[in-house]
Amino acid sequence: MKYTLYNYWRSSSSWRVRIALEHKRLAYTYVGVPLLEGAQRRDDYAAMNPMRQVPTLVVTDDGGAQHELAQSLAIIEYLDETHPTPPLLPRDPIARARVRQLAEIVNSGIQPHQNTGTLAALAKLGQDGPAWARAFITDGLAAMEAIARRTAGRFLVGDELSIADVCLIPQLFGARRFGADLTNVPTLLRVEEACNALEAFRRAHADVQPDAAAPQQS
Amino acid sequence: MKYTLYNYWRSSSSWRVRIALEHKRLAYTYVGVPLLEGAQRRDDYAAMNPMRQVPTLVVTDDGGAQHELAQSLAIIEYLDETHPTPPLLPRDPIARARVRQLAEIVNSGIQPHQNTGTLAALAKLGQDGPAWARAFITDGLAAMEAIARRTAGRFLVGDELSIADVCLIPQLFGARRFGADLTNVPTLLRVEEACNALEAFRRAHADVQPDAAAPQQS
After folding, report:
1. What is the pLDDT of residues B166-198, one digit of tens each?
2. Which of A83, A94, A101, A136 has the highest number of chain B CBs within 10 A, making it the mutation to test binding with B?
3. Does the predicted TM-score (pTM) go above 0.90?
């Protein structure tokens, strides 16, 4: 199998897939898709990803056939099923459901309200995009904190890294970018520290990707 | 195991879980949560579901312990793992990824932009909620149609029912409710017909739930 990841340094859904690839120690080719130039809307990209979003993971199998996969959680579940060690889901069904619940709070509860397409649509209406994003981020992280207080060990669900943690870290980056208040989510911040100590998270971080803007431009 | 589903007749994410329960032939207790009265924001409900959304599935195990699960796809994956027959995911890893990709186009790409909380937030800003929802529905369904033209058999991915179909049917109901144009998604409409012929989909339909409004009120 060969992997090519079409993605964008600061995109949180791209970042999740990078963490999963690094955690599984899977080599991949990085292709930057410059969202601010609208590259995701070009026909050649849309043919791979009809939602015109990042990321897209192109999987080339040993026979040379190519499969273009999109939607970050679908990609991560695929990677976890095809490379189960080290795992990104616990074994117990209730614990697995809790991991996916937390992941979906980010994936469907927060991120759709702060992504490039939504911010562009708000701008067209003359609305304050960052304020819109901040409200959903604040509510979503508060819900995650309430759950994590009961489920967290070293990571969000117990002591093993999971897809929930993979979603949390890029979301906290987004929270700071949009100016959300993080004083009421100490459990999430403690888990963030544990994640940041891991090599996979350092290698997947937005700021170290080849298409990352210099600090003053971001 | 005993199941209690806190949900709302017209909520598309509630409806998905109902289809999954019916497909697996699992009996459950139906508890209506009147969203228009704000019942999902009450403290007793928020203690079960800190996102203050429907659905919540309360699983009572044989020892009497209760587990409150939320986020529709997390719940459906849990039901599929604990009751694998009849399945809601294919066996092939690429096909599973395709099913989850299609499900996430609905779950994170469309539905967050049309749900009760988002429409309320738009109304506060004096914005046209149905127009906002319609734009995301139109783009998302077009992307699903493009994928389905390559993957669909009787259902969205091949000839077996999957989580992708479970997400499609309530989303098409939402599309009509918000006045989206469906002339360019013939593959989706053909799959809808195949789903509507199934007993599970008839039993899970919004209009036949105990809390459904009379037609003139909906």
Report:
1. 999 999 999 999 999 999 999 999 999 999 999
2. A101
3. yes
User: Is residue B67 scored above 70 in pLDDT?
Assistant: yes
In a domain, B213, yes or no: no
Residues of the domain holding A188: 93-201
Residue B24 falls within a domain, yes or no? yes
Pick from A17, A40, A51 the residue to mutate for testing the B interface (most B CBs within 10 Å): A51
CB contact under 8 A, A132 and B139: no
Residue A206 lies in a domain: no
The minimum CA-CA distance between A125 and chain B, rounded to whole Å, is 8
Q: Indicate the residue of B74, B105, B125 with minimum beta-carbon distance to A97.
A: B74
Percent of chain A residues topping a pLDDT of 90: 97
Give the C-alpha separation, B10 to B111, whole Å.
Answer: 13
Nearest Cα residue to B204 out of B1, B2, B5, B39: B5
User: A157-167, pLDDT tens digit by residue?
Assistant: 999 999 999 99
